Amino acid sequence: MGARWDTVQSEVSFDGKYKADFILWANRALPTVCLVELEKSSFRIFTRDFNETDEVTHALQQVNDWLRWWCQNPQHDVVAPSQGVKPEGLVVIGRSVDLTEHECIILAHNNQGRDIKVITYDELLDDFGTLILHRLDDTRT
Q1: Which of 118, 129, 128 is nearest to 96 (CA)?
Q2: Is 18 exposed, middle or buried (0-12, 13-18, 19+ CB in 10 A)?
Q3: How far apart, in whole angstroms, are the C-alpha atoms of residue 20 and residue 23?
Q4: Strand, coil or helix: what is 121?
Q5: Which residues are paired to 117 by β-bridges?
Q6: Are 66 and 86 in contact (CB under 8 A)?
Q7: Theoretical Cys-Cys bridge with 103: which of 17, 30, 83, 99, CB 3.0 to 4.6 Å?
Q8: What is the C-alpha to C-alpha distance for residues 20 and 37, in angstroms, rounded to an integer?
Q9: Residue pLDDT, tens place only, 65-87
C-alpha cells in the first residue's frame, strides 16, 4: 500500500459495528493512520454525467462512518495507539484505464477537497511497484 506504511492490519472490526478492509500505520513521532475500503476493480467511478457512481458514494459513506466512530472512541483498543490523531480515509475502486482524461481531472479535483481519497487499483499497483523498487535499492546499498 506504499512505502510510507510500517504496519498493515486486515479485516479490522470496530466493536463489531464496522469492519475496515485494512488499517495502515506509519509509526512516527505522532502515528499516521489510514482506513482503507476496497471495492471491485470492475466498478466505474463516474456516471455518464460525470457524477460519482453509487458504489463510490456508498464506499465514501462507509469510510466516513469509520472516521466518525474512530474519533468518538479514542479509548478503544483499535484506536488508542493513534494517540488522538485523526486517521486518513482511502477508497480503492475501478481502473485508471477506464477513466477518460476529463474524469481523471475530476477525480484529482474531488480528492483535493475531501478527507477520504479515491484511487484506482492501477494507482495502488503503481505505489506498490515504487515500494518494491525502493526496497530493492535499500538491499543494494
Answers
A1: 118
A2: middle
A3: 7
A4: helix
A5: 90
A6: no
A7: 99
A8: 6
A9: 999 999 999 998 899 888 888 99
**One-letter amino acid identity for 5?**
W
Instruction: Look up residue 10 and give its three cell numbers.
Output: 486486515
Element (H, E) at 108: helix 101-112
Residue 52 · residue 69 · CB < 8 Å: no
pLDDT band at 125 (very low <50, low <70, confident <90, very high): confident
Q: Which amino acid is at 20?
A: A
In three-state secondary structure terms, 15 is coil
pLDDT level of residue 135 (50, 70, 90 thresholds): very low
User: Coil, strand, or helix at residue 40?
Assistant: coil
Confidence of residue 129 (pLDDT cuts 50, 70, 90): low
Angle at CA of residue 28, ends 11 and 117, nearest 5°: 50
Q: What nine digits make up the cell of 88?
A: 486518513
- Enclosing H/E stretch for 58: helix 54-72
